[in-house]
Amino acid sequence: MNPNKGAIEQSIDKIFDEIAQLSIEIENVGQVAQQIDAIARQTNLLALNATIEAARAGDAGKGFAVVAGEVKQLAGQTSQATTEIGGIVQSLSSHVEQLKTISTKARDGLPSNEISSDMGMGA
User: Fold this and answer.
1) What keywords tag this UniProt record (predicted)?
2) CA distance 71 to 60
3) pLDDT tens by residue, 10-54
4) Is the pTM of this model over 0.85?
């Protein structure tokens, strides 16, 4: 029996704990990105309403129409950025799942060369 087996098992258990925490944090980032996207959509609607009100105000509302247009553009950029964040979150989640698989194989005692080949697949 390998005298380091207990230490290795403890290390792998710690890896699982860290992976679980990482999964939670990734999910939190995704939720925040969804909230930001919802705010961006609401801001876009407010900018549209402001543009309509500016048009109804005639010449006096021209400056406000420019500001409303800029706000609408910023809302669009924010929405695009949150879409990109969503893609990153999905990628991170995929990598975490790979880590779980590799860690499970390590814990179950697969030869280290098989674990190493799995690690190279996701790179």
Assistant:
1) Transducer
2) 19
3) 888 899 999 999 999 999 999 999 999 999 999 999 999 999 999
4) no
